[in-house]
Amino acid sequence: SQQGEEDPQALSIQEGENATMNCSYKTSINNLQWYRQNSGRGLVHLILIRSNEREKHSGRLRVTLDTSKKSSSLLITASRAADTASYFCATGGRETSGSRLTFGEGTQLTVNP
Amino acid sequence: DGGITQSPKYLFRKEGQNVTLSCEQNLNHDAMYWYRQDPGQGLRLIYYSQIVNDFQKGDIAEGYSVSREKKESFPLTVTSAQKNPTAFYLCASSTGTAIYGYTFGSGTRLTVV
Fold it and tell me: Which of A21, B64, B75, B99 is the most exposed place for a label (fewest CB within 10 A)?
């Protein structure tokens, strides 16, 4: 099955800096989604970008998608300590049925006050 | 408020026992999913259901069983055939196309004692 791979596995920055996380995948997709997980909790949906879109914004989040390179990036601007969490990309494939998503292994982001 | 509820939050299983994890949603979502998460890892799909009375195996279905008798409910049974069940289990739901992303429960942490 296709799988997103996040890079880096871990990222540590200072409050106020920007954080960039990358995701690569292997096969054609309908859409790519980003989720956030605080330690020991469920995941929270952040943003979805469709395969025919190149960039999308939501508040301090900016997502880009390059289908020719099979990659996406998530940028968090002006980071805060509360942004500390794991971030996962998930892909919905053209070949898979309906709503099934495949998740990557995540990037652990630590924002130091 | 609409949401998805998993219970219990913590569960302990003795060797050779079957245990059932509960997942209930009141979002009127057609699709429901079970994922397993091991420490520091991504999510792996166990089973999913896109409609009542129908479900499909995910990537790691061996040792697990599910039922979908009601739209609101998708319980997961971890059987004694699952040799390494200690993990964090996450339930999620979505519309049929998942175009708005998944809504996750807060998880059940299962430990074998």
Answer: B99
